[in-house]
Amino acid sequence: MSLQYIGLNEINGPLVFLDNVEDVGFEEMVEITMEDGSSKMGRVVQIEGKKVVIQVFEGTNAVSLTNTKTKFLGKPMEIPLSKEILGRTFSGSGKPIDGLGKIYAEKMADINGMPLNPVSRVYPRNYINTGISSIDSLTTLIRGQKLPIFSGSGMPHNELAVQIVKQAKISEGDGKNFAIVFAAMGVKNDVADYFKRSFEEAGVMEKVVMFINLSNDPIIERTIAPRCALTVAEYLAYEQDMHILVILTDMTSYCEALREFSSSKGEIPGRKGYPGYLYSDLSSLYERAGIIEGAKGSVTQIPILTMPNDDITHPIPDLTGYITEGQIVLDRDLHQKGIYPPVGVLPSLSRLMKDGIGAGYTRKDHSPVSNQLFASYAKVQDARSLASVIGEDELSEVDKKYMEFGELFEIHFLSQGPDSNRDIQETLDLGWDLLSVLPKSELDRVDTEVLEEFYNNERAVSRFRLGEKTIIRELSVGGE
């Protein structure tokens, strides 16, 4: 038997409160019929005894306290799923907005996903090639990993997200089963248009499923968008045997919506006003990445978040770092130098890359060349700090070599332009050419056998025209 409740006790922003309600569940969907016959959808977000709090998706405008009829539907929010969703664009709540009509569903699925047995998870291996040297070689993205990008206001994280979507690929044998689910939360109209236009112009739209939540859309939709995206990803991965890369941008907008929503419910705030359950809420999203035993597909996540005031200790990046397996940090100093993508090498890491690179995956020298580039670039920072005190002319010959290496590394390796797509072989060869600028005795992170095979100072001198002091600074950014 289905009951309708007439009237409401209270309206507060996007929330409505109802008393004397029995037999309802958390996250249950609700249909609210207004005085003029039109209806809005909502979901139960809080239950206290017989008092229920309902979050209304389209807002509470024109909702009356007296004549509103409320009907509980007895099921959580579901999204229609079919392989037809590839190439389609949806709103944050999963409604088609591309003018191509509705989805003819093979099944309906709860957007909150199914709980996974941790024992059934398979350890991630095999890398995803993004075509970006600083990511592929130094913070390699492994299939089934969750690897966030920490950015800041005004940084080119949107451009980086588009480049990853355009260039990301997996091994040749599985390439046809690779697709991307892209969810944008709280973006402006021009940014949403930029995403759609870029994917269409690059000809990759047929392998992308897009969820777009605009900044003027209801905040409830912002909290739903990543769950809809991940539900689609799980369906394509575990039921259609595809390898799915999920890009979520911007998770800061999601967390701000969560904070506003929590405040309107009257909950006691935690750090910086965010709800005390922010960690578990983010976990419920990030932990939906991985590989499941017996499944042929996988879900890989790249959440992108902007750090307020570039503060990596802010609750959003701080908690994200606890849950995920590393991070890619964009550096404002590199960005101001005109380097794109401005990946800060030293604070970035990928905790799973050690088991997804090397012989059989990328190349046998990947791990040593990566370790040596990290170590050498760290010494560059020491040399620069020393030079700022005593002057560059007073540095030792070795420190001057490190200064030269650092400049070449940033111009040739880190900077490559938004349309440059390097394969892993090209990236590793470039890394060796840069390391060959340094004296062989300084390369202490590489075995002698590997060093003898790949070190080539003559090739480095020829490639970078060493000795012509002006050439380094005169090269256009990203030039070879």
TrEMBL record:
For this entry, list what GO says about its biological process: proton motive force-driven plasma membrane ATP synthesis; vacuolar acidification
What SUPFAM superfamilies has UniProt attached to this entry? P-loop containing nucleoside triphosphate hydrolases (SSF52540)
Which stretches make up the ATPase F1/V1/A1 complex alpha/beta subunit nucleotide-binding domain?
Answer: 131-350
Key word Transport present: yes
Could you list this entry's UniProt keywords, alphabetically sorted: ATP synthesis, Hydrogen ion transport, Ion transport, Transport
Q: Which domain of life is it from?
A: Bacteria
Q: Which residues form the ATPase F1/V1/A1 complex alpha/beta subunit N-terminal domain?
A: 10-74
- Tell me the function of this protein: Produces ATP from ADP in the presence of a proton gradient across the membrane. The V-type beta chain is a regulatory subunit.
NCBIfam families per the UniProt record, alphabetical:
PRK04196.1
In its UniProt entry, what is this protein called?
A: V-type ATP synthase beta chain
What are the top taxonomic ranks of the organism? Bacteria, Bacillati, Bacillota, Clostridia, Eubacteriales
Q: Which gene encodes it?
A: atpB
